[in-house]
Amino acid sequence: MGKMFLESGDLVGVTFWLVSIAMIASTVFFLYEGAHVKKEWRLSLLVAGLVTLVAGVHYDYMRDFWVVEQTTPIVYRYIDWLITVPLLMIEFFLILKAVGAAVGTGSFLRLLVGTLVMLIFGYLGEAELMNVTLAFWIGMAGWGVIIYEIYAGAAGSAAKEASPAVASAFNYMRLIVLVGWAIYPIGYVWGYMLGGVDQGALNMVYNLADFVNKILFGLIIWHLAVSESGGAGHDNETA
Ligand SMILES: *C/C=C(C)/C=C/C=C(C)/C=C/C1=C(C)CCCC1(C)C
User: How many percent of the chain have pLDDT more than 90?
Assistant: First the structure.
C-alpha cells in the first residue's frame, strides 16, 4: 500500500512540494503587484498569476498522486500544460498590446496549433497510446512551429519596434521558450527513450522546468510592467 504523507527520503516528492508552494506564493505576488502597476500592464500580470494559480492547484494534486503512487501523474500534468501553455503564449501578445502594437490573429493561431500538436502527441507518447519515439518527433515539430513563429514571425518584429523595454522582455521570454522549454523533451527522452522508464528522473526534470518556465517567465513580465510603470515607486502610479 502507498504512503499517505511525504517521506523524508522521497526526494522527488519534496520537489513536488517545493514547486507547489512556489506556485502559490508566486500567484499572490503577481496578483498583488498587478494591482500596483499602470493599468495597461494589469492584464499581463493577471495572466502570469493565473498561470501559477492553475499550476499551483495541479501541483497540489500531483504531489499527492506522487506520494501515494510513486509514479507520473500524467493526466494532471497534461491538463495543467493544456491550460497554462496557451496562457503563456497569450503573454507575448499582451505585452505588445500594452504598448499599442497590434499583431494579427494568424500568428496567435499558429502558436496555438503548435502548442496543441506538441502537447497532444506528448500525452499520447507518455500514456503509451502510441509509439513513444514517433510521438516525440511529432511533438518536437509542434514546438518547432512555436519557435519559428516567435523568432521569425510578425510578433517578433512588432516587439523590436515597440520600445526597448518590450523588445528586451520579448527577447528573454522567447529565450525561455527555446532554452527553458528544452528541459521537457530532455526529460521525456531520459524518462521514456533511454531504456527503462525512470519515473523519478522524469518528474524531477519536469518539476524544475515548470518552476523556471512559469515563475521566471512571470518575473520577466513583472519586471517589464514595473519599469514601464515608473520603476520602484510604481505604487504611486495607480490611476
Ligand atoms: C508550464 C508548462 C510548460 C511551459 C510546458 C511545456 C511543455 C513542453 C515544451 C513539452 C514539450 C515536449 C516536446 C517538445 C516533444 C514531446 C514531448 C513533450 C510534450 C514533453
Answer: 80
In degrees, rounded to 5, the angle at the alpha carbon of residue 80 between the alpha carbons of residues 76 and 86 is 155
- Kindly give the residue spans of alpha helices, DSSP state H, lying in the chain: 11-34, 42-69, 74-98, 105-126, 132-152, 154-162, 164-175, 183-188, 199-210, 217-228
Q: Is 140 in the pocket of ligand 1 (CB under 6 A)?
A: yes
Cell numbers found for residue 109: 493561431
Task: Write down the domain spans for the chain.
Answer: 11-228
Per-residue pLDDT tens over the stretch 160-173: 888 899 999 999 99
Q: Using a 6 Å cutoff on CB, does residue 211 contact ligand 1?
A: no
Give me the torsion for CA of 85, 39, 28, 220, rounded to 10°.
50
Q: Which amino acid is at 38?
A: K
Transcribe 9-54 into DSSP letters: T-HHHHHHHHHHHHHHHHHHHHHHHHTSS-GGGHHHHHHHHHHHHH
Judge: domain 11-228, CATH 1.20.1070.10.
yes
Confidence of residue 233 (pLDDT cuts 50, 70, 90): low
135 Cα nearest atom in ligand 1: 16
pLDDT at res. 121: 98
Q: What is the pLDDT of residue 2?
A: 63
CB 55 within 8 Å of CB 84: yes
Pocket test for ligand 1, best of 83, 85, 118, 186 (most atoms within 8 A of CB): 118
